[in-house]
Write a structure and sequence with these properties.
By secondary structure, the chain is of the alpha/beta class. It has 21 helices and 25 strands.
Length: 595
Amino acid sequence: MREFEHFPNLVTMFFTRAKEQGDAPFLWAKKGGSWQSISWAETAQQVASFAQSLKDIGLEPGDRVMLVSENRPEWFIADLGIMAAGCVTVPTYTTNTERDHQHIIEDAGASAIVVSTNKLAQSVMPAALRATRAHHLIGIEELRVGQSTGVAIHSWDAMVGKAADVDACAAAATFKREDLACLIYTSGTGGAPRGVQQHHGAILCNVEGCVEVITEDFGWDEEVFLSFLPLSHAYEHSGGQHFPVGLGAQIYYSEGIEKLASNIEEVRPTLMVVVPRLFEVLRARILKQMEKQGKVVQLLLNRALSLGAKDLAGGMPIWDRPMNALLNRTLRPKIQQRFGGRLKAMVSGGAPLNPEIGVFFHAVGLTMLQGYGQTEAAPVISCNRPKVGLKMDTVGPPLKNVEVKIADDGEILVRGELVMHGYWRNEAETARAIQNGWLHTGDIGEIDEKGRIKITDRKKDIIVNDKGENVSPQKVEGMLTLQPEIFQAMVSGDKRPHLVGLIIPDPEWAIEWAQTNGEPYDLKALCDLPAFRTAIMAAVDRVNTQVATTEKVRKITLTPDAFTTDNEMLTPSLKIRRHVIRQVYGERIDGLYKG
């Protein structure tokens, strides 16, 4: 079995792999309708050149460099080049507003900014001009600037085309594991983003732990990743970039969520890092396609779901094995081909996964591992593992070299090299988050007999009704959005007698409902139609039959307007921002308790 090396820093890990892989393909992107690759050797050359160019324009070790770009090969080269220059990467979301950029530039004290396109530069440039330290703007694509602005504009092509010695750059990477690698700003579900200080060792601890899972449970081979979650998110940054480097894997950059299904079939990834919302969408699509294929396929799917649930619950009875063998020859291969046919595992993280989703994908022959983590832990803390036993209501055992314990009040505490060195320039919040070396996650949970963590609640993100009973809103919302009628949902009920819900109907389902009921399709008008509201409430009542009395949603209000990152009701990692939603819909939600 191949052993994973103990690297001193992320830059050394990259240059080591690049030397081993040489001219083998590494980073892939679609250009002119076809996938084109950059080799490991060429990537190493560009990283070294970019690092040298940053030094040449006056950047010094420890300087912060903000990176604003969609996922693409240049993102990787910029990130590693910044670190190779001894600087600190500050990744930010492409969906950030000018105000968000302004906050991060000033808070991080960024000296330079890398931005990919003119469109993104429109929100970055004004923030850069007002900043006190950001003197350099590097455009991956040519930036259109009419006159001098006081910020020096640099060409990406010139910077990565500069002559540089790769071996000398690799040798100069004398950073230690405890040195700061990047500042990753939290997505701000409850307010202004805070900069999490991730050191080289934190991310390397994550990589080493994830490599062990793959090596021991699946076998370390020639791996292929498809990257589509934002690289500015800690989960994709570690899991979709540095983890593949550790494995010596190839990385394909997706064309976007709308082309993800076709990209999966083309790329045929072996590993994918995903969020639960994507699984919900894929499950809904598969179910819809199955419906159109007749009663036999429906019967096979129902049998698969039944057997999958039994298998996860503790083993499949011998009399079910003939049917399981039939499913292995008929239904499952067809679904597996839609995912490329060689997928070892999809790893879900970033938000809680509804166990029903996990059972579904296991039943159709796709291995899904739920992970758990936080940006403050680089970010992966634990992950489900087949060798321990998959249990979809757990997030698996802690990674290698990670300690987890449960505090007296039930809070999950984490200790190890993966824990951040604190929030950037925020000692008060750091002292609250890290006490006696233990990261206080804010999650409530327990550890089962096999060492698997089960998250039962969010310490802060819980509803306490007027009787003092605790309700987890995420659990109820997750069950609501599994219904075909419901696209998004937020439940409310703090200090109230029962839960109520704000529901966004699923547009595709609404179109079908309108056609069936002879109504013109106008989602806003449908939301005001009593018969339409009754149909949505029927979906809510289905969920009400599956939950405790305190979790039942008694009344709902509908809106056609989805929660999005643009209206700031969703974080870039697709978590809902409750405080923002309440600002807009609070009066309507409170009105549900009247009368």
